[in-house]
Design brief:
With about 240 residues, this protein is α+β, with helices and mostly antiparallel strands. Helices cover about 35% and strands about 20% of the residues. It folds into 2 domains: about 110 residues, no CATH class; about 70 residues, no CATH class. A hairpin with a 2-residue loop joins strand 3 and strand 4. It is globular and about 65 Å long. Zinc ion binds next to loops.
Length: about 240
Amino acid sequence: MTDTHAQRPEPVADPDIHTRVCIDSMLGPYDAKLDPTHRWNGWLSPYFTLDTVRQLAARTQEMAEEDGFDCVDTIHVIDGDTDSDGEPRAVVVHIRWQYLGEGAESAASIIQPNDEGLYGVGGWEWTWHFASWTCACGTDAYWHVETCENCGAARDGQLQEQAPAGQPEPAADPKEIVRLRERVHHAAARVRADPDSTNPEWRAALADLTESLDQLAAIDPVYRLALQQADATDD
Ligand SMILES: [Zn+2]
């Protein structure tokens, strides 16, 4: 994901739009703040909250495990207790494994937060680009373009409408969600344990799993988000 190890400019003082960025399907999309005019060969230099950096860091480490450390930079968040005001301290480190032979200076750097406490990860170095959303009319737009340029529909309204259609959304009862999650868990365990499509009891467990997943999708925002993310990853 690293191209050339180019000279980096001064950090951006006031990145000014909220959007989502990704690197193809490898990394992201993540919420970010950035100056859209601040480009390196057209690529973006996004800034992230520490929580987002933690997600991103975990993903880079997964990628390095999968694809090899020779071709993947990794990000690490090292937590160091609290400062004298009781605020948690953390250091964000960027490791460029392929430059390890050239000395520590280019192989590792500490990413300092900017004035807003946001961390610029991979700016002027990685191929970050805007994440997009697809309107019901089929038009693609960058994430921060909140209204479809073709039909005028709003991004956020549509993403909520992508919940299973047909039934009005019931107010979620937390106890019902817990009950359904347990039902899913048990049915899935039974389905996995001894797959045998000739066994009526197994078929009943599969039907129960399907039905409880459908019900969960209708009322469990966490599960619904997971489904949306799975869909996004499939694209
Ligand atoms: Zn549209």
